[in-house]
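Researcher: Please translate sequence to C-alpha cells.
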Amino acid sequence: MTITLTRREAQQVLECMETAIKAGDWVVDGACDPDFILYMLRTRLAQPEPEPLIKMKELLEVQGRDGNWNLDPYMQGMYNGMELIVALAEGRDPVFRKAPENWLSAQPQREWQGLTDEEAAELCHSPIAVIEALLKEKNT
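Model: Translation complete:
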C-alpha cells in the first residue's frame, strides 16, 4: 500500500520526528532508521514546487485581485473554483470568498449622450477625430 503525503503533511512529520529525536523520545531499536527517513523528507521538501502549481498560484492571484473576483457572480465562482484546484494540489482546505455586498458590475451606468441635431449638422464635414473628441467630452 502506498500513502501519499502533501508537502504540508511531510513538513509536519519531519518537524515531529526532529522534535522527538531532540527530546530523546525517539527510541532507535533497529526497526526503523530515522536518519534515512529524515534525509528523504528533507530532500523531497527541498525540491521546488512543480511548475504547473506555480502557474496556478499566479493565475489565482490575478483572479483574486479587486475588480476581477468581485465583478459579478461568475467571476467570484471562477475565483473559488481556481482556489479549490490550488488547495487540492497543495493538500489544504480551500478558502472561498463570499459574495461582496455590491458587485462592481452593478454600478449604475451613465446614459449615453449623443449629439444634438445642431451639433451633428455642425460636424457634418468635420474630421472624425473632432467628432470623437466631442463625444468623449460629453460622456466623461
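Researcher: Any highlights?
Model: The chain has a mean pLDDT of 84.
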